[in-house]
Amino acid sequence: MTEAVAAPVVPAKGLRSNALGMVSSTVIGMSSTAPAYSIAATLGFIVLAGTGFKAAAFVLLSFVPVLFVACAFRELNAAEPDCGTNFTWATRAFGSRVGWMTGWVVLVEQLLVMSSQSALTGRYTLLLFGLDDLANNRAVTTAIGCAWLLALCWLCYRGIEVSARAQWILLGIELAVLVIFSVVALTRVYSGTAGPQATTPRWDWLWPSGVSVGAAVSAVLLAVFIYWGWESSLSVNEESADPRHAPGRAAILSTVLLVLNYLLVTVASLAFAGVGEHGIGLANEANAEDVLAGLGGAVFGTSGFGKVMGLLLIVSVLTSGAATSQATIMPAARTTLSMASHGALPKVFGRVHPKYQTPSVTTWAFGLVSLALYVLLALWSRDVLADSVDAVGLTIAIEFTVTAVACVWVFRRTLLSSVRNFLLRGLLPFVGGVFFLAVLVLAAIAYAKPDSGETTVFGIGGVAVIGVVAILVGFPLMFAVQRACRDFFAGRSLTRGAVARGGQTIES
């Protein structure tokens, strides 16, 4: 289908073109979500919210608005495949200041995620080798987490092909273990060897009836964020063999594969463990932080095979954290590179390695800032580190809201030209944007309660304080760089509204 929409010329940044196919982009998008860790660390809390077996319904339900937002990413990328993604598109739609702050919000969430994943890789590396006592030693886990972070930065620096190959391996291990876990758990349930707590899966688990409004809201707030990360497939769009179309398709495919993976693991876990408050039950608060660790021994047993699979479950969470860290460094470096290329940051951040064709300065700058932030939070307090991770939810909601609304606004003149445009560029992104705006408000209210997290500041929940302060820091930084970036803030280097004007025809 063709239509009249301006296709801006994306400035060459020196990145390696034609390096990635759609499958590699999909792998990067899926890896960024940390499927094993995300479901392991979230499923128990969804059940504890009061959903019981209907936890599966909220995992499925939360996928719908994510898919709507993915449509917005796809359409915007087809019009302008810039590795700055949200930053570039928000600038086109709403001007330089909104675009700059959008880029800042994306970088904040990526910095906070790196802290959590570094802590995860540090802890699970020790657990893999049976060093459980050291796994609780903050100094040791921090040191190992830092080593992982630097090693992954080096991989990203060495080239996009090297990074993509590493992602294939890490994600392959992760998904293989999750599938084996689910198949064995369900086989034991249907064969009657799972134990008295087991329950045969039912179709009504996928429909959220009988759940209170409060429990439903809490479950959605938890479930919706396990999908975050798929948009990383679009940050490598300029390195794709088909920049305008493949990354967008990879984003959609990533979300679909994620929901299938999450549903399989969720149904298998619910069926095998049940929702009891004791033992391996998913409503047991002692298991909530990692339900897979609690279920591994019960599902696989304690024989030789069971011990091997127990180790592989640890490996799957470890590779999940490593893959996510690597897939977070890549988009963060490219967002910053794009901002510098468009004049929104000093030119030094726009440097690309002449041989490896990767963002040289921004990759290491992001890695070192992430390392410093992780060490600071880890040494300061585990409670502050935990609340910093939860604060990512606020930034994700802002990112998705702005991008979805930007899609509607950028394409507003062509929405009524076809049914396709009305749905994929108008209605679905608008509904997704409204949903995440509501999530932002509800999350801010929930996180502001003194008992919502691990810390409080002047009677306000630490999660809300950390999230809001981290976002607000962007304003003085933006004003500080304005003098050196006058063309950008005057709207000359990245023109507002250019995507929506003109008569050039592009395929969509």
Automatic annotation (TrEMBL):
Native source species: Amycolatopsis dendrobii
Domain of life: Bacteria
Record field: transmembrane: 26-49, 55-77, 139-157, 169-190, 210-230, 251-275, 295-318, 361-380, 392-411, 423-448, 460-481
Keyword set includes Ion transport: no
Main subcellular location of this protein, as a coarse class: membrane
Pfam families assigned to the protein according to its UniProt record, in alphabetical order: AA_permease_2
Recorded GO CC terms: plasma membrane
Membrane topology: Multi-pass membrane protein
GO molecular function: transmembrane transporter activity
Compartments reported by the entry: Cell membrane
Signal peptide: none
Keywords linked to the UniProt accession: Cell membrane, Membrane, Transmembrane, Transmembrane helix
Protein's name in the database: APC family permease
PANTHER family linked: AMINO ACID TRANSPORTER-RELATED, MEMBRANE PROTEIN
